């Protein structure tokens, strides 16, 4: 009898209905988890590209940016994947032969064609932005600057990329986009963190941009740029000083020096033993200094070095005008500037120069930095050349001047103190992308930074899959438990002996 019952119980557990329900249950759970995994898996990554040409006063550089295709207009990272330095000078130097300006870009454009996958060429936007060199040419000779743009535009139109135009950036744009780049690369914008100020030193202009608690734009609207990025409002202070890039300031200093000693210039910003014959007309061939050309000057002058940091600093100070500030506070030349605030990233020539001089460590007290520079400037020119046989002589000759200018600009010009100097970081790249205005410019033109914070999924993909799996397993266990009445041990009747 009991054997018969056991048989029946076993049969109950093994009834076709129970087996079918169990199998369907298992299949359903496996299907649910599989769909959860596959449906929400990030799609196979496809990339989009953007190209920006930075037509600076001293040279042109091409940058290629890349970002995951399904993440544009999102917080998806845009990264620089390639850069190419155009051989030769900046496009403004081709004023007398504009076609050459276009031709000079061809090598880097060829390189870009190899770096961007062919099937993406047509949809890849290509921008050219020109800065202070073209601003100066435009002031000096606007039709010559138009001809340069015409030639450059024609050359770029021939590329397989989607050419979006070549134009001069305003100083305000140059400053603001440099700030956007630095803060975007540091994830400060998407996370609403405290921002970093941006210091950019070029050959012909220099920019300073930062957020100040005491600046709302009302005192000097011309220095104010407002943004709404990822749901946060920013009121940025920015200023670009045309003619205060390091090449133009060198002209300004030399112009001062040549006022007194015609024919012979003993320059404290160059090493002793340095001696070059230079052309007056070349020195004064810039709107930054052209009004200062001494009358009756000979064709050439001898530029010789004296290697004296303190005297060099005295000369450099002369290029700043500290009188006539009509605001509550100014940097120089009557330009409003609130007190510098927060961390700063200093890039372009700030980095080239301070890196060469081994002075990028801003935890070194400012006084010690000045002592080191004093010793460097006092080193004779032949020793400097022996120590750096591979460095371009033009760059090498100017590092004493450039270092002195940088320290003077920061402390006397922008009012960085011995304490706030350590808030500056001399940087070239952030996470593999060059610091500069180009990335910010492209992000803006491609609407890649949303004004509002994008909706983010409640759970990341891995969290979502784990959640579905756990719930599915729980349901499965519940289902098995619900079949308990059919379990052999539970369905056993009490034995009547
Ligand atoms: N290894 C290097 C490379 C460049 N430079 C100097 O750095 C300056 C150029 O800086 P850059 O930021 O490239 O200027 P541009 O963009 O060309 O100029 P601007 O922004 O004013 O248009 C030039 O004076 C150049 O001599 C340097 O001292 N050492
Ligand atoms: Ca520049």
Automatic annotation (TrEMBL):
Protein name: Ectonucleoside triphosphate diphosphohydrolase 1
Residues that bind ATP: 203-207
Localisation: Membrane, Caveola; Membrane
Alphabetically ordered keywords of this record: ATP-binding, Calcium, Disulfide bond, Glycoprotein, Hydrolase, Magnesium, Membrane, Nucleotide-binding, Transmembrane, Transmembrane helix
Pfam families membership: GDA1_CD39 (PF01150)
GO biological process, one term: nucleoside diphosphate catabolic process
Organism, as annotated: Sphaeramia orbicularis
Binding partners and assembly: Homodimer; disulfide-linked.
Gene Ontology molecular function: apyrase activity; ATP binding; GDP phosphatase activity; ribonucleoside triphosphate phosphatase activity; UDP phosphatase activity
Transmembrane regions listed in the UniProt entry: 12-38, 464-483
UniProt topology in membrane: Multi-pass membrane protein
């Amino acid at each position: 009898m009991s054997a018969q019952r056991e048989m029946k119980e076993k049969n109950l557990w093994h009834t076709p209905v129970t087996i079918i329900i169990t199998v369907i249950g298992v299949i359903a759970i496996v299907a649910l988890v599989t769909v959860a995994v596959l449906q929400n898996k990030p799609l196979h990554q496809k990339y989009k590209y953007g190209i920006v040409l930075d037509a600076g006063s001293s040279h042109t550089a091409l940058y290629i940016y890349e970002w995951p295709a399904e993440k544009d207009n999102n917080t998806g990272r845009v990264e620089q994947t390639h850069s190419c330095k155009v051989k030769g000078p900046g496009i403004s130097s081709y004023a007398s032969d504009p076609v050459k300006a276009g031709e000079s870009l061809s090598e880097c454009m060829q390189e870009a064609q190899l770096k961007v996958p062919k099937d993406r060429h047509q949809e890849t936007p290509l921008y050219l932005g020109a800065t202070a060199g073209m601003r100066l040419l435009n002031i000096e000779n606007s039709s010559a600057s138009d001809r340069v743009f015409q030639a450059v535009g024609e050359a770029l139109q021939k590329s397989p990329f989607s050419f979006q135009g070549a134009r001069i950036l305003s100083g305000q744009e140059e400053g603001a986009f440099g700030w956007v780049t630095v803060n975007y690369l540091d994830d400060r914008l998407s996370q609403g963190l405290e921002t970093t100020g941006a210091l950019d030193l070029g050959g012909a202009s220099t920019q300073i941009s930062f957020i100040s608690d005491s600046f709302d734009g009302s005192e000097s609207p011309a220095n104010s740029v407002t943004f709404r990025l990822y749901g946060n409002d920013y009121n940025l202070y920015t200023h670009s000083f045309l003619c205060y890039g390091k090449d133009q300031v060198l002209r300004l200093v030399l112009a001062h020096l040549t006022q007194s000693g015609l024919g012979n210039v003993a320059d404290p910003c160059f090493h002793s033993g340095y001696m070059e014959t230079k052309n007056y007309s070349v020195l004064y061939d810039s709107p930054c200094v052209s009004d200062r050309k001494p009358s009756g000057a000979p064709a050439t002058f001898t530029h010789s070095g004296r290697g004296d940091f303190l005297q060099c600093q005295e000369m450099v100070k002369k290029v700043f005008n500290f009188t006539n500030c009509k605001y509550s506070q100014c940097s120089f030349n009557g330009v409003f500037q609130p007190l510098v605030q927060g961390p700063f990233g200093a890039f372009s020539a700030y980095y080239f120069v301070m890196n060469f001089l081994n002075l990028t460590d801003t935890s070194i007290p400012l006084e010690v930095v000045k002592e080191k520079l004093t010793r460097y400037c006092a080193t004779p020119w032949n020793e400097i050349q022996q120590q750096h046989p591979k460095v371009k002589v033009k760059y090498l000759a100017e590092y004493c001047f450039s270092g002195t200018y940088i320290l003077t600009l920061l402390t006397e010009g922008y009012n960085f103190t011995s304490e706030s100097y350590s808030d500056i970081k001399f940087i070239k790249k952030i996470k593999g992308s060059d610091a500069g205005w180009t990335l910010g410019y492209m992000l803006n033109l491609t609407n890649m930074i949303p004004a509002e914070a994008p909706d983010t999924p409640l759970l990341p993909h891995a969290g979502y899959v784990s959640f579905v799996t756990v719930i599915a397993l729980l349901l499965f266990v519940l289902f098995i438990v619900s079949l308990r009445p059919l379990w052999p041990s539970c369905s056993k009747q009490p034995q009547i002996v």
